[in-house]
Specification:
Elements (H helix, E strand, L loop, with lengths): L1 E7 L2 E6 L9 E10 L2 H9 L1 E2 L2 E2 L4 E2 L4 E8 L11 E4 L2 E2 L5 H4 L10 E2 L16 E5 L3 E3 L6 H4 L2 H13 L7 E5 L3 H12 L4 E6 L2 H9 L4 E4 L12 E6 L4 H10 E9 L12 H6 L3 E4 L6 H11 L7 E6 L3 H9 L6 E5 L13
Parallel strand pairs: 13-14, 13-16, 14-15, 16-17, 17-18, 19-20
Antiparallel strand pairs: 1-2, 1-6, 3-7, 3-11, 3-20, 4-5, 7-8, 8-12, 9-10
The structure holds zinc ion (2 copies).
One zinc ion (ZN) binds next to helix 4.
Length: about 350
């Protein structure tokens, strides 16, 4: 089978890989679509993401959907042919974080396509994937596969909004309108935010934010500062650059909450720490998700317009072109790889 393997910075290959055999308790998923994530792009460009470095070749990908193609010993569900999404995480269940209900920051988790541990956990950008049955979720009936491929990044966004506390009736600022920022807009909307303002440098990115339901769009580099709200209740930093964090700290009200969701460059980052002190701003990190994955699938089933965030679908054989396209934020939002090009697609769902 074909798989999309990162061998080092700038060295992305479509390799022939052995088709996996599902082990005890595992389900074999015929992968159809895989969403190219910012972290996949980081592995491709820099050989690492955040503080995690690549030490050996790794199959990328953790945003995967497909259909059940087989079962290992001791498991028979979901039935063969069922459309499913794959939850990318298997927390250890034993560490202090798992025991205290914060499984998403488990110190010993296995996360698809991540170099956080060594040997790395191989990812899902391949025509077939064997995973523990507990990671497999049947799709709600109204949810086509391409839209379902947004479940993982939407779960990330739902978790960030949950970290912000109760946003109902509040004004939320989101800095960065990449796929994650756009999905934070959708998550904030779903949580009852009264107003959502989004900032980005690129007009096309802001257009995607309006597809997701943003009320107000701000060009982050507008010299006049036009469009910036005076004050917001909550800010979610989704750009992963310190200028975004700076904007959040300056715009959030006294006593407000800033959630840092974007992965910042490795090492120390400068930030306006004195504002955190003098305004008693609560600065909170947000990392991955747990049960929000199931909420994401339900929300996607109810919000067909979110399919409009899928800006391109390319066959796996054109993986490098797909990655370049995903990295071009002037034109792209979420780019999907297709591991079974030619089969009926569900793409008529796209706006
Ligand atoms: Zn992702
Ligand atoms: Zn754990």
């Amino acid at each position: 089978m074909l798989g999309c393997v990162i061998h080092g910075a700038g060295d992305l290959r479509v390799d022939r890989l052995p088709t996996p055999e599902p082990g005890p308790g595992e389900v074999l998923v015929a992968v159809r679509y895989g969403g190219v994530c910012g972290s996949d792009l980081h592995y491709w460009r820099h050989g690492g993401v955040g503080d995690f470095r690549l030490k050996e070749p790794m199959v990328l990908g953790h945003e995967v959907v497909g259909t059940v193609a087989g079962h290992g010993p001791g498991t028979s569900a979901p039935a063969a042919g069922t459309p499913v999404a794959v939850h990318p995480a298997t927390p250890c269940g034993n560490c202090p974080e798992c025991r205290s209900g914060r499984r998403h920051v488990c110190r010993d988790t296995r996360y698809l396509g991540s170099a956080a541990r060594h040997p790395h956990v191989q990812g899902g950008f391949a025509a077939a994937l064997a995973v523990p049955a507990a990671q497999v979720r049947p799709l709600p009936p109204a949810l086509p596969l391409p839209r379902a491929a947004l479940a993982e990044p939407l779960a990330v966004a739902l978790h960030a909004v949950r970290r912000a506390g109760d946003v109902a009736g509040r004004h939320v600022l989101v800095t960065g309108a990449g796929p994650i920022g756009c999905l934070v807009v959708a998550a904030a909307r779903a949580a009852g935010a009264a107003r959502v303002t989004v900032s980005d440098l690129l007009p096309r990115a802001l257009e995607f934010a309006s597809v997701a339901g943003a009320d107000a769009l701000v060009r982050a580099d507008d010299p006049a500062g036009a469009g910036w709200p005076q004050e917001v209740d909550v800010a979610v930093e989704a750009s992963g650059v310190s200028a975004g964090l700076d904007a959040c700290l300056h715009r959030v009200r006294r006593g407000g909450v800033v959630v840092q969701l974007g992965m910042l460059p490795p090492g120390p980052s400068p930030f306006a720490g004195n504002l955190v002190v003098s305004r008693e701003i609560e600065l909170r990190g947000s990392f991955r998700f747990d049960t929000e994955f199931d909420t994401a699938l339900e929300l996607l089933a109810r919000r067909p317009e979110l399919a409009g965030l899928v800006s391109a679908v390319l066959p796996v054989t054109e993986a490098e072109r797909a990655f370049a396209l995903a990295a071009d934020r002037a034109v792209s939002c979420k780019v999907l790889l297709d591991f079974a090009p030619g089969a009926p697609s569900g793409l008529e769902d796209r706006a």
